[in-house]
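Supplementary material to the annual report.
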Amino acid sequence: MNRNYILLTILMLALATGTLFLKKTPNYNEIKPQKLLWEIIQPTRYVTTDQVAKMIINKDQTLELVDVRDTKSYEKFSLSGAINVPLDSIAATSNQDYFGLPGIKVVFYSNDDIAADEAWVLTRRLGYKDTYVMKGGLNCWIRTVIQPQQPSEDAPYTEFEKYHFRKGAQIYFTGANIEQGSAGKSKVSIRRKKKKAVAAGGC
Amino acid sequence: MHVHDLNPKKALATIIIFVIIIILGFVTLKRPKFIYKVSLQESIELLKDKNAYFYPWQLVDVINKVDNNIVLIDIRDIFSYGQGHIPGSENISAYDLTSKKYIEYLNRLNAEGKTVVLYGNDQLEANGPWMWFKQVGYENFKVLLGGYKYYLAHKDNLEETKSDKSYILEVPDFNFAEVANKGASIQSTTKNTKVPVIKRKKKKTVAAGGC
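Predicted assembly:
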């Protein structure tokens, strides 16, 4: 047998055994830390409660709401169509199927926005794209969408636009049958066309 | 030409050169500036550590220069910092945190075992950067609860904020299930709540919005 063959075989075997000592890396695709920090600093991940309300009302199929509170709170109340992935178990393999679906926008929410933002950081580290955070969380949701406050007389026009949208959303989400302010009600029905122009805003 | 026609000496030389190139590659491989030192699950556990947070009333010692072991870092931009900041804090904008000049400084602080407290306008602004530092192995980094806004509102009575819990976030302000299903009754009951006060403040930032 040729000596070269033996030499090559030994070399390959040596390299192969070397792979045994490679450090075990997790099977997900973590992004580089530097990149993660850069993205953390950008405020582009935040969506307002109005935007989320709009997507729910429009039955946006690309929206995936993820409730990161504990299961108990989730069962008591959650936004329509939301799934529950508690922050504690966000790294669990069984929960990975919820993220990184092509064309799906994942929006995290919690009572405020800290836990949702933490979920965002963790899943972003795992490399999942198209993830967002509902700014203000459910507390803001109630204040803006469920209990909208009428702007004062001298408020800018956009405030009124926002308010009318929210009144419409309130009716949608609570089934409230609001009699008073019929003028406001008719504006709500017109709203649909203008929706794109509405300045988004939070609490 | 078949392999067994190869000149054994030539083959050996090729193999040696091959191996040398690989070794050279490994030696000159640039070490990444940061690597995750904390696994994902561990960093979730870290979030529950009460000691990883800095409480507003703890600022008293820093402002009065009683505790020299704590370094306050304002991560807002230089303009916000110029308009007002917590006394004794230093300004390193979030964008500059890992620039050569500042990361060397932060590394030194970390090596000296100093406690580095990051703060932004609110907790959320500094929370992400704080999480990041924790994940890449800066153990002594903390985030200021409530952020600058809370400090500004309570700067004259920081000691008393020990009993105040309003800077603790993720507490539901409502019974969601009840409020969200109330329907028509909402109209009458919410008119007199404290909510309008919050709305007014935000009006100034019409375009930006957000909580």
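Chain A touches chain B through 68 residues (CB under 8 Å).
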